[in-house]
Specification:
By secondary structure, the protein is an alpha/beta fold. The chain is built from five helices and eight strands; from the N terminus they run E-H-E-H-H-E-E-E-E-H-E-E-H. Helix 1 runs parallel beside helix 5.
């Protein structure tokens, strides 16, 4: 005999939390993080965004280092972003600052960070590439990479702070590094939209800011280049037979 349930009453019982970490209304939409030296050059962009209805605020790295704790500067910045997400309900984060010099600067301070010679610090993962041929003597060529996803990945499952160092050994995002335990179970899902203007000088900041304002202040009809496109790509040599390489110059990738 087949029985069919036509109606059902469901009662949900739960305890309302004493504290809601996210306010009902947002105080800011966009927070810009940059060193104090870039503040004046960024002010036109802040004014432009506010005039467009995107509530924007600047937070300097100097302020963050004074107000927030962390094991290093990238973690201090990440704790500020977490605070801004919870207190201001921000939607976007714009990091401004790159490597100070391509010639004289040292991009990596230690296994985890580049801070000393960066206007805005970067987090290095400790993801080690395996050799292409495991039985060969080929050396590992990429011991870690820069990842700004670190700044956007604020929470683990369950709402805990995502440190990218789950085993607390002081090595962030470790995977495949000889002699180091892997950091398993990292979240890798961004909780806020984040980007970076990797500017190396005040002049570069001014140039980029002017371009952004100009782009957002004009319509497509005012931009003769708007319907033109340049595509730059490489050839993966999938069409290579011996030494006979054929290049496709007609199709789009």
């Amino acid at each position: 005999m087949l029985e069919v349930l036509e109606n059902a009453d469901i009662t949900i019982i739960y305890d309302q939390p004493d504290y809601n970490p996210f306010p009902e209304t947002s105080q800011y939409d966009l927070v810009i993080i940059a060193p104090q030296v870039f503040s004046q050059a960024l002010q036109p962009l802040i004014d432009h965004k506010n005039n467009m209805g995107v509530k924007t605020i600047l937070k300097t790295t100097e302020e963050i280092y004074q107000e927030y704790q962390g094991r290093d500067k990238p973690e201090q910045i990440k704790y500020f972003i977490k605070d801004a997400l919870e207190q201001w309900v921000i939607k976007y984060v714009l990091l401004v600052g790159g490597l100070k010099s391509m010639i004289y600067s040292k991009p990596r301070d230690d296994a985890n960070q580049g801070s000393r010679d960066w206007y805005l610090p970067v987090r290095y993962t400790n993801l080690y590439d395996s050799p292409r041929f495991p039985l060969s003597e080929e050396t590992i060529h990429d011991p870690g990479i820069i990842s700004d996803l670190y700044y956007a990945d604020i929470y683990r499952e369950g709402g805990e702070f995502e440190s990218w160092d789950h085993n607390n050994d002081g090595i962030f995002a470790a995977w495949g590094k000889p002699g180091v335990e892997n950091d398993t179970g990292l979240d890798f899902y961004p909780d806020v939209a984040l980007g970076r203007l990797a500017c190396r000088s005040v002049d570069e900041v001014k140039t980029v800011v002017n371009k952004i304002i100009r782009y957002e202040s004009t319509s497509p009809s005012d931009k003769p280049w708007f319907k033109k496109m340049i595509v730059v790509s490489g050839d993966g040599f999938l069409d290579q037979q011996d030494l006979n390489i054929k290049w496709d110059t007609n199709g789009l990738p």
